[in-house]
Amino acid sequence: MSRVHRGRVGIACRVAIVLGLAGVIVFSRAAASAAPHSDAENVLIVSSPRVIHRLCLGYSGLIADLYWTRAVQYFGRTHAERGTGYRLLAPILTIATELDPKLTIAYEYGAVFLAQKPPEGAGEPESAVALIRRGIEQNPGNWRLYYTLGFIYGMELKDYGSAAEAFAQGAQIPGAHPWMRVLSASMAEHGGDPETAHYMWTQMYQSATEDMLRNNAEQHLRSAEAQVDLSRLQHMIAAYRAETGHPPASLAALVRPGYLYRLPKDPTGQYYRIDAHGRATVQHPGDFPFLEIDEKTDPVLAMARKP
Amino acid sequence: MIRRVLYIAHNTFREAVRDRVLYNLVIFALLMIGAAILFGQISVGIERIVIINLGLSAMSIFGALIAMFIGIGLVSKEIEKRTLYTLLAHPVRRWEFIAGKFAGLAGTLAVNACLMGMGVYAALWYVAHRLTSGDVSLLGAMYCIVLQLVIITAVALLFSSFASPVMAAVYTFALFVIGSFDQDLHAFAGLAHGATRWLAMAAAYAVPNFASLNFISSAAHGIGAGPKLLALNSAYAAVYCVTALAGATAVFERRNLK
Q1: Residue A59 and residue B49: Cβ atoms within 8 Å?
Q2: How much is the ipTM here?
């Protein structure tokens, strides 16, 4: 066989390899798009943490990391799709933490996202409490887990007594942040106050080490500030309506009689506005996912309900 | 005597390097680089933990595969290539041959693990831009992985002394899996009664206890194995290897090589 012939065969082989790889990608993508929609990503094939632990052959730490990553991806994907069903979040977190009981980040962050109301979370505060209590059992020296427990009791379950107790227990752990005692006292005395909520979210924002949790705390803080502003504006609208007998056409109408000094802006810098029902609201509700309207105490709704 | 063993060990090491065994380090390096970059983007808060878990697991898995597949061929390859006859024609005893082969592969695995360990530390440095005092605990976990690999090598040599290479690989792999469940075997023995209890207990002690040599998860959280535990594990591995090699030598001594 001549050298020229061998060289040609070599070139032909390289071309075939490149074309073959390209073909594999093309056909693989075509087959995937032609196949019926699979829900495989939303299924836990093996749901028992004990069975998975056995199957790991001693590499449970690595598999726990993969399950935690899967939990993050699952939460992120469902949230991006504005989904309300996070039914796999609790089981995935349970598997991750059973495989690696020291994976404190999974207890801490997982519990926060399990507890929050849909669509910002799974709306399962009881599961979140169970998860974080298991984390405390496994990591009794970690004060941040008590902090998260108190947080869920206070902010999601409105159980201020349990929240105060959790903060107090965490404050006794060596190395705990001094504001744990402050939080315990605040919860015991002023559990439901907006100021307490604002203080807690501020602490969460300042102490968060990961962007995901910091962004979440920032959204809560923004929503809490807007809520205080809107509550004040509703009272002004109610007073204007009582004085004039009709609702204001816009917030500018509140400036002229002196209810407002100037047109107020929300924490994102946008002006507040009045909606079709005559209530003050934000320009972009999507920027304030945790904004809550208390229909019982809203003065505008109360006036509208009057005969 | 020691010189002859070391000579065979040195040649076994050179042969393993010539067989491109250390090429697995390239895959390991790619894994580390990929994990360091990827996990920072797709996960939350576990970059450091995943580097340790992945690095040590890869060290253990790659090492176990090398120990199994090179270990089973240590004797059979020499017979197949007829180099064993040349060697045994010299004043080399059969047990020296077994000991030398074992030491050579164990040395290869130790060098491989050392290089991988340096890779893990480099990846940790890349992710966290610093190393902490807790990272010292990794050394204990790495040392125990090397002990695991040394035991697997001894077991592979034992099986290869009487079984075909394929069957020796199957037996070694099976023992590796069973050894990972050794604590369950002990628990089962504790629940059984009568003869079953004694049989289960015997089986639990006969298989290598790989579970007690695994500190990967705890090392990822900065919890190290204490010096006493490391010393006991070293003694366990030494006794297990000597026993397995004695078995391999006993079979090899009786083997008719004509």
Answers
A1: no
A2: 0.78
Fill in the amino acid letter for B6.
L
Tokens of B101: 């082969």
Q: Is A58 in Cβ contact with B46 (below 8 Å)?
A: no
Find where tokens 């309900």 sit: A305
Residue A300 has a pLDDT of 61
How many domains are contained in chain B?
1
Domain that residue B147 falls in = 2-254
Residues A131 and A110: beta-carbon distance below 8 Å: yes
**Beta-carbon contacts below 8 Å between A and B:** 67
Helix (H) or strand (E) run with residue B180 in it: helix B165-180
Smallest Cα–Cα separation from B207: which of B166, B251, B158?
A: B158
CATH number of A42-218, picked from 3.20.20.70, 3.40.190.150, 3.10.580.10, 1.25.40.10: 1.25.40.10
Asked whether the beta carbons of B158 and B244 are under 8 A apart, the reply is yes
Using a CB-CB distance cutoff of 8 angstroms, which residues of chain B are in contact with residue A58? 60, 180, 210-211, 214, 216
More confident residue, B112 or B75: B112
In chain B, residues with a C-beta closer than 8 Å to the C-beta of A138 are: none
Least CB–CB distance from A58: residue in B42, B49, B210: B210
Alpha helices, DSSP H, located in A123-159: 125-138, 143-151
Q: Which residue of A has its CA nearest to B176?
A: A57
Interface contact flag, B57 A65, Cβ < 8 Å: no
Cα–Cα dist A150/A137, whole Å = 15
The sign of the torsion formed by the CA atoms of A48, A54, A57, A60 equals: positive
- Mark yes or no for CB contact B177/A57 under 8 Å: yes
Give the nearest partner residue to B57 out of A62, A73, A210, using CB atoms. Answer: A62
Instruction: Identify which of A125-139, A229-243, A279-293 has the greatest average pLDDT.
Output: A125-139
Q: Do A103 and B60 touch (CB under 8 A)?
A: no
In single-letter form, the type of residue at position B147 comes to L
Q: Where are the domains of chain A?
A: 42-218, 219-305
Q: Read off the pLDDT of residues A88-114 as tens digits, 9 standing for 90 and up.
A: 889 999 999 999 999 998 998 899 889
H-type helices in chain B, by residue range?
2-18, 24-42, 47-71, 73-80, 83-89, 94-128, 137-160, 165-180, 182-191, 194-206, 216-220, 227-254
Q: For residue A209, which residues of chain B lie inside 8 Å, CB to CB?
A: 45
Residues contacting residue A235 through CB under 8 Å, at least 6 positions apart = A299
Residue in chain A closest to B180 (alpha carbons) equals: A57
Please give the structure tokens belonging to residue B250.
Answer: 């006993």
